[in-house]
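User: Hello, can you help with two protein structures?

Assistant: Certainly.
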Amino acid sequence: MSDQPSGQPSDVPGVPPGDLPKDLPGDLLLRSAGPADLDAVLAFWKAAAEGTSISDDREGVERLVARDPESLLLAEAGGELVGTVIAGFDGWRCHLYRLAVHPDHRRRGIGSALLAAAEERFVRLGGRRGDAMVLRRNERAQHAWRAAGYAPEEQWRRWVKPLAE
């Protein structure tokens, strides 16, 4: 991830200029989260993300960033956190979680920029297909994922078992 504001879409490392929206905020910065960002990320998710997870706590996000320091991508504009995505790669599959853009900053290309950066990361790591978990009831998110080229696979169903309380 770049340490410099993007300014122009071509400034996002590894992402071809044509793959990013043309109307990105001029001061958009995409970067990986560090330990100092985690409280802000958790507060941001409460305001901007839909649904909650058993892992939505400081300990869970610390574990994520410690295990894979480049997995939690942040978008900042004017020094403010405006978007996130978790781009997790386990060596076999590419998983996308917590794509969220602050309600006041939606429809400006920030989610697309985050996805482009996540997909570039996956390709660099050898990934071949990204998958996203999207709540059935979140129609806005379903539209956004479709617009980004993703499609549901109706033949699959997610099975979960909590391992801790």
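That covers the first. Now for the second protein you mentioned:
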Amino acid sequence: MTPIDLSHLSEEIKKTQNWSNHRKQMFGMGLMNELYITDGSVSKTSPVIIPASDRAMTTQLVSDVLDDLIAYDEIDPMVYPLEGEPVSGTELDFPHLLILNNEPGIQYILNTHLWLKVMDDPERTLALVVTGNLSGAFTFYIEQVSGQFEKMVVNFDKNGIYLLTKLSVDVLHLTDQPLTLH
């Protein structure tokens, strides 16, 4: 979406303050279907992972729209408790290291409709944002203090903000194909 479209969305969201909860949630679901950030890739099967700073203006506006949708009760983030599966790091190749910071906002664009966002909450919870009615899985690895890796999989089947609870790391390790779309 263009920055002008995103600016208008923020104004439209503010007009919903006195709407019924059902109407707000229907409005929020509609917006989550329409939100996207162009990632510059031409292939839907092999996305280019880019830092959000490469699309700074757009990602900031999209992050603001998401924050407004939450603030006005139009979408409810979904808690997604992660359970890691230990794996041997010697058999894996990690061509992508996503270095996270504690600043709220979109950190990485995984594809046009999937982003990693640090929430503007006291815990600075990491979230996977899904738009465009996609379903699939996002797989990443985290390194334990012992040097072993744990495989984490986030399965998603609808638009939303998936809060990745129980995750307190600064780096996500990704293989060449971290996304599986159905």
